[in-house]
Design a protein that fits this description.
Number of strands of chain A: 6
CATH architecture of chain A: 2-Layer Sandwich
Shape of chain A: elongated
Order of helices and strands of chain A: HEHEEEHEE
Radius of gyration of chain A: 18 Å
Helix content of chain B: 40-55%
Order of helices and strands of chain B: EHEHEHEHEHEHHEHEH
Number of strands of chain B: 8
Strand order of the largest sheet of chain A: 2-1-6
Oligomer: heterodimer
Number of domains of chain B: 1
Strand content of chain A: 25-35%
CATH topology of chain B: Rossmann fold
Number of helices of chain B: 9
Largest interface: A-B, 29 and 28 residues
CATH class of chain A: Alpha Beta
CATH topology of chain A: hypothetical protein PF0899 fold
Structural class of chain A: alpha+beta
Strand content of chain B: 15-25%
Distance between the termini of chain B: 56 Å
Largest sheet of chain B: 7 strands, parallel
Distance between the termini of chain A: 31 Å
Shape of chain B: globular
Largest sheet of chain A: 3 strands, mixed
Number of helices of chain A: 3
CATH class of chain B: Alpha Beta
Chain lengths: 114, 222
């Protein structure tokens, strides 16, 4: 259900950009999605297919999702590690003073249309 | 057929909502209205907590409540009947959260009654409402004892955006494996600045402390 709300936001944003650029048909929308962004790509695509059919400008638009891997950084031993595999605890020194470097992105990268 | 153009956008999906939320927040400040966004999972006691809190504060402030749900108007009716303050129901049309645009629509209806303290009871959910800034002056959430002390670890974003966390249903603590110290430690781990207030909405325990916190915030922010 979260994915549906997000899809409406993307459609609104992209529709504005399409109109500003005098597009009459948007063929694809490319997103960058971090693997710990809480959005599930499969659900997002399902919601997308349902929602774009109800629009004019985006009715044939394909959704392209580029994943961004989640990487965390340890402040104590300064190593980077795979967030999905190790969570908040550094696998090198066991510290919990870590933060996410990348992986929670949810960006509209570009659109293609005519 | 025209040639296909590629237009670079490079913008966060949440950006337009964040912008709208910031705009709403500054408008509210100008109008002298404090907006509290109250979040929690379903059944943690949002409506009961609000009822108790409103009854303690309604003599000092003109309060208005927006109840957001996917369907029904039971919460809006309960609040209106048991506190006498203006209460409206917002339907999200199947969506799991409110965004700044929907909050603004609800406020437009409330503002007619010259309120200075607006409360938004968000949809019961620990995930999505945390992603969408509503434009509220302050964010509050309720975690109830039966849900368990590990929830701050499982729903990190929700706990990290809240200014105050109420731990509700402390009267049933002896029946659950709930560790209060561990819970506070988990909350502070995600959000060192969060104020934590244990309450029992049913008996009213701790509500005075929450009301005092709110008064302080209202005075500092409007």
């Amino acid at each position: 259900m979260h994915e549906l709300g997000v899809v409406f936001h993307i459609i609104d944003d992209v529709t504005d950009v399409g109109k500003e650029n005098n597009l009459s048909n948007i063929e694809s929308v490319t997103l960058q999605l971090g693997t710990v962004s809480t959005v599930i790509p499969e659900y997002l695509t399902d919601c997308w297919k349902w929602a774009v059919k109800r629009t004019e400008l985006l009715k044939e638009a394909k959704l392209i999702i580029e994943p961004i891997e989640a990487i965390s950084h340890c402040e104590d031993c300064l190593t980077d590690f795979d967030t999905i595999k190790y969570g908040k605890t550094c696998p090198n020194c066991g510290s919990e003073h870590t933060y996410l470097l990348q992986g929670n992105e949810f960006m509209i990268k570009e659109i293609a249309g005519s | 057929m025209d040639k296909v153009k590629v237009i670079e956008i490079k913008r966060s999906v949440y950006e337009s909502n964040d912008r709208e939320a910031d705009k709403l927040r500054s408008e509210l400040k100008e109008k002298g209205i404090f907006l509290l966004n109250l979040m929690s999972s379903p059944g943690s006691g949002k409506t009961t907590t609000l009822k108790q809190t409103i009854n303690k504060m309604k003599d000092e402030f003109t309060i208005g409540v927006m109840e957001a749900d996917i369907d029904s108007d039971v919460d809006a009716i309960t609040i209106a009947k048991e506190t006498g303050v203006k209460s409206i129901q917002l339907h999200t049309g199947g969506m799991c959260h409110l965004d700044a645009g929907m909050t603004r629509q609800g406020l437009d209806e409330l503002i007619d009654s010259k309120i200075d303290f607006a409360i938004l009871e968000n949809v019961g959910n620990l995930v999505c409402p945390a992603e969408f800034d509503t434009g509220a002056t302050k964010n509050a959430m309720i975690l109830s004892v039966p849900e368990g002390h590990d929830k701050p670890l499982k729903y990190p974003l929700m706990f990290s955006i809240c200014d105050v966390v109420l731990i509700n249903k402390i009267d049933v603590m002896p029946y659950f494996d709930f560790d209060m110290d561990e819970c506070i430690k988990n909350i502070k781990y995600r959000n060192p600045k969060a104020e934590v207030i244990p309450i029992c909405a049913k008996t009213g325990e701790g509500i005075d402390k929450f009301a005092a916190w709110l008064k302080e915030q209202i005075k500092a922010n409007i």
